[in-house]
């Protein structure tokens, strides 16, 4: 298998000097001539700033991989447990069923090579690709090495993975999507302007110029076409300047011209000393010949792994010759992988007769192909895999490959936080500032203002009811809004975190901060309207304290919503649990029941509505305040039946309890996200 020669064209076949001219017009960059692997500086990410100055890396961000990766996998096997009725009322005593999805799969992909994974649907292509990307849950047996080392976070950050489903933020435009990715993924040694320029270049490279300002779209509103979405996904991964790029069916559902364009882009990327592996369904012969190597799977086993150009020669040598002279090799391979062999008995008729109805024949053909592979191809492949790997980068610098070439995050915590905050604000502005939400809060505030219109202390029960309503409404509302936060963003979070794009903490704090303005503006409007309409104490200080307590309550309730969402990661379950929790908090809040049975009084101590209600009452009335409790009779407010048992004196404890919940729920949400983190 000959490694492809280096080409001096850019990644889509545009001559590199065209790109070079574009870049040098705008920013100062150093042009680097295509060099051999050994000419590259070792571990560029670790160089000191003064060394970086002298190193011509900037232009190469998209032209060449900074650290090529040789991927070797040997005897990779993966077994899944099939779900049975075990645990249900009707469980049988049958043993657990398992299924082998991959069975002893081996291969090598080197920098500069474009490798296609072919096989019928269900043959294990996606599973193998996911295993190679280090993202397969559960135990994968066999060995997979990257430059002779096992998968690590350093490799993760140099690996681009385009999944079959495009996971994109629906409300961002193409330009915004790629710009935010560039800002997050490209190293800090590039300026912001240079990163944005890289995003623009990718848009040009992938032919997305026409739709650069179109929104991506989602299931409920149209945006990009399937092909355009796919190209945006590929563009996002290209922006890592990946050394290893893995793509799951990047051409499915695309017209042949677009498919060809994408594959030629991939070929161009491979020529920049990247290792590119893609699964592909039914490629045309035009596409097939663009691949350097093919790996052919049949029911999780290999029937071929090697040069794309020698496929016919190999299968001819073991007795499988296509009936037609000009048959697409991909069709031929897929027929073989399905166990459909050319009918050699009718060679004279030059006919290719499938025997799809003959299962036994198909199985024996597959078995024969698998054993031929193990006999003829596997020994040489094994020898090649076992040839020791010498990392030219690390050995040149005398650094230990496993530790020293390990780089850290490409961008700082603060950069990640800033970019994620801006992206979140853009993506969610339609949601945060939705007219419906504003209408909901305004209408409830005006209605409750009218219901409690200028209530006074002679109707103390009513006034206290209004304060309790504050605590409950601003317990429910933020809780249910916050529940959606993480489950909705889960696919994006999984994808971006799996590729080591940012720290969980920067994402988490950006999400908190982004939600804050609207979470605080709405209750402020609400309290301002209802407080004055409802006839509560006309004092600016009391009003301000009431507002601050409600806002504190909002933050605590939001924290609980985030924690429930992060723990369950499923909106339906989380909303069910949240409604039960809030109902308990409502009942235990201290307004409806003052004389709780002792064995259940603890419930009120876990209810944030209880503390909020106590604080609201505590700031509204002073100790010696009196109200008209009967004709000509005045009683102390704190002796009224609604308040008497509330223990208003210890407001410091109430604030402390809310503070503990504020921090506790947020920590819980953070750790739930961290624990639930996919590999
Ligand atoms: N987690 C899982 N649970 C159950 N079955 C699984 C799981 N993962 C993979 N499989 C099964 O393993 C087989 C291989 O799946 P995989 O997605 O790798 O196939 P594929 O070759 O990529 O198929 P396609 O071309 O249709 O995408 C399929 O039959 C699939 O149903």
TrEMBL record:
Key words of the record: ATP-binding, Membrane, Nucleotide-binding, Transmembrane, Transmembrane helix, Transport
CDD domains linked to this entry: ABCG_EPDR
Similarity annotation: Belongs to the ABC transporter superfamily. ABCG family. Eye pigment precursor importer (TC 3.A.1.204) subfamily.
TM stretches of this protein: 436-454, 466-487, 508-534, 540-567, 574-593, 655-673
Domain ABC transporter: 71-324
Keyword Nucleotide-binding carried by entry: yes
Name of this protein: ABC transporter domain-containing protein
GO MF annotations in UniProt: ABC-type transporter activity; ATP binding; ATP hydrolysis activity
Subcellular location: Membrane
Species of origin: Nyssa sinensis
Pfam family, one: ABC2_membrane_7
Ranges annotated as biased composition (Basic and acidic residues): 344-363
Record region (Disordered): 30-55, 344-365
InterPro entries: AAA+_ATPase, ABC2_TM, ABC_transporter-like_ATP-bd, ABC_transporter-like_CS, ABCG_dom, ABCG_transporters, P-loop_NTPase
GO CC terms: plasma membrane
Membrane topology summary: Multi-pass membrane protein
Main location class: membrane
């Amino acid at each position: 298998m000959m490694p492809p020669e280096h080409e001096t064209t850019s990644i889509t076949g545009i001559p590199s000097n065209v790109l070079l001219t574009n870049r040098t017009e705008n920013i100062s960059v150093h042009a680097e001539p295509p060099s051999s692997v050994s000419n590259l500086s070792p571990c560029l990410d670790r160089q000191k700033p003064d060394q970086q100055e002298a190193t011509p890396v900037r232009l190469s961000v998209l032209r060449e991989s900074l650290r090529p990766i040789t991927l070797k996998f040997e005897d990779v096997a993966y077994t899944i447990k099939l779900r049975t009725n075990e645990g249900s009322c009707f469980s049988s005593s049958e043993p657990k069923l398992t299924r082998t999805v991959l069975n002893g799969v081996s291969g090598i992909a080197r920098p500069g090579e474009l490798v296609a994974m072919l096989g019928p649907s269900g043959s294990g292509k996606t599973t193998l690709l996911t295993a190679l990307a280090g993202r397969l849950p559960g135990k994968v047996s066999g060995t997979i090495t990257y430059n002779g080392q096992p998968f690590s976070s350093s490799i993760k950050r140099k690996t681009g993975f385009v999944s079959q489903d495009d996971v994109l933020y629906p409300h961002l435009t193409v330009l915004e999507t790629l710009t935010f990715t560039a800002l997050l993924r490209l190293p800090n040694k590039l300026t912001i302007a240079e990163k944005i320029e890289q995003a623009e270049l990718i848009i040009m490279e992938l032919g997305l110029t026409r739709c650069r300002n179109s929104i991506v779209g989602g299931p409920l509103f149209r945006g990009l076409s399937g092909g355009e979405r796919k190209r945006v996904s590929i563009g996002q991964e290209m922006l890592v300047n990946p050394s290893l790029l893995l793509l799951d069916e990047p051409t499915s559902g695309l017209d042949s011209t677009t498919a060809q364009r994408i594959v030629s882009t991939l070929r161009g990327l491979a020529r920049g000393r990247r290792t590119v592996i893609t699964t592909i369904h039914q490629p045309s012969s035009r596409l097939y010949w663009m691949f350097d190597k093919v790996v052919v799977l049949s029911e999780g086993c290999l029937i071929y792994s090697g040069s794309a150009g020698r496929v016919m020669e190999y299968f001819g040598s073991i007795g499988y010759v296509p009936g037609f002279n000009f048959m697409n090799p991909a069709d031929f391979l897929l027929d073989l992988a399905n166990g459909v062999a050319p009918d050699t008995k009718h060679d004279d008729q030059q006919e290719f007769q499938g025997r799809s109805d003959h299962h036994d024949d198909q199985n024996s053909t597959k078995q024969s192909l698998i054993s031929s592979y193990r006999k003829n191809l596997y020994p040489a492949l094994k020898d090649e895999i076992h040839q020791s790997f010498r990392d030219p980068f690390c050995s040149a610098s005398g650094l230990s490959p496993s530790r020293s070439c390990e780089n850290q995050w490409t961008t700082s915590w603060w950069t990640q936080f800033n970019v994620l905050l801006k992206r979140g604000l853009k993506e969610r502005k339609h949601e945060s500032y939705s007219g419906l939400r504003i209408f909901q809060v305004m209408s409830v505030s005006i209605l409750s203002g009218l219901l409690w219109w200028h209530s006074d202390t002679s109707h103390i029960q009513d006034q206290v009811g209004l304060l309790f309503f504050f605590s409950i409404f601003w317990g429910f509302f933020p809780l249910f809004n916050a529940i959606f936060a993480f489950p909705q963003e889960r696919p994006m979070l999984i994808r971006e975190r799996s590729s080591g794009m940012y720290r969980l903490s920067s994402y988490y704090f950006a999400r908190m901060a982004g939600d804050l303005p609207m979470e605080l503006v709405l209750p402020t409007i609400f309290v301002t309207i209802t407080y004055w309409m409802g006839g509560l104490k006309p004092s600016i200080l009391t009003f301000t304290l009431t507002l601050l307590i409600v806002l504190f309550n909002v933050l605590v309730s939001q924290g609980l919503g985030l924690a429930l969402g992060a723990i369950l990661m499923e909106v339906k379950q989380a909303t069910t649990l949240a409604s039960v929790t809030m109902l308990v908090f409502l009942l235990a809040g201290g307004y409806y029941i003052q004389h709780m049975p002792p064995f259940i009084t603890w419930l009120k101590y876990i209810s944030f509505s209880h503390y909020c209600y106590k604080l609201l009452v505590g700031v509204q009335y002073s100790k010696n305040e009196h109200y008209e409790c009967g004709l000509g009779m005045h009683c102390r407010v704190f002796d009224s039946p609604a308040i008497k048992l509330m223990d208003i004196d210890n407001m410091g404890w109430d604030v402390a309890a809310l503070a503990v919940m504020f921090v506790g729920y947020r920590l819980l949400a953070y750790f739930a996200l961290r624990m639930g983190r996919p590999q």
